[in-house]
């Protein structure tokens, strides 16, 4: 079978338009829907650019910095010394009061000395943690753009491209129109055609006698044929 990429409906519409263009009588078309069996349906792919992202996890070690303040040695020593000195003053209940007052005074004096001379200690501790890293890499994907469908209709095979797979049969919109083009005439040099109903003699050399065969007796009821006359004597 031959392939024809033109749709039936498009060919019919073109024929009808040509008839109107040459001034012929209008040929009214009939439109209807029909189904045709599918011979094959082949997907058509197109490769497109489709970047993708790749991610992974890495272990990274960093130094964690920590700061610690010095112990208030001056306040502690001042409190002890002040308490001892206060205990040396007075006796009885006055001695207890003096001891407490000396301890408080020594703590205050020692704390003031610490504020003026205090420093902080900085330490760096190694710490390991998981870090996610990503990057964009080129990629490609095959995308279906349509289907090349071969189908049969009225003894002919056609092909078209559809955006979907039709399955076992395809739906057609058929336009039927009368072909108003006159039939072609006889070739140059040929004799004119006889009028309708006129006798046409067979061409020369076309008659042939029937082949000789065995004699058949006439059917019952028919008289036999008379004998043939003898040939004349010389």
Report what the structure shows.
This protein is of the alpha+beta class and 234 residues long. The protein is 23% helix and 37% strand. The protein is built from 3 helices and 7 strands, in the order βαββααββββ. It starts with a strand and ends in a 58-residue tail after the last strand.
Task: Explain briefly what this protein structure is.
The protein is of the alpha+beta class and 234 residues long. It contains 3 helices and 7 strands; from the N terminus they run βαββααββββ.
Summary tags:
single chain, 234 residues, rod-shaped
Given the helix and strand composition, which structural class is it? alpha+beta
Q: What fraction of residues sit in β-strands?
A: 35-45%
Low-confidence region ranges: 1-25
Helix content: 10-25%
Which sequence of strands runs across the widest sheet? 1-6-5-2-7
Q: Output the radius of gyration.
A: 60 Å
N-to-C span: 74 Å
Shape: rod-shaped
Q: How many helices does DSSP assign? A: 3
**What is the number of E strands?**
7
Series of secondary-structure elements, N-terminal to C-terminal: EHEEHHEEEE
**Biggest sheet, open or closed, and with what strands and sense?**
5 strands, mixed
Instruction: Give the integer mean of the pLDDT values.
Output: 73
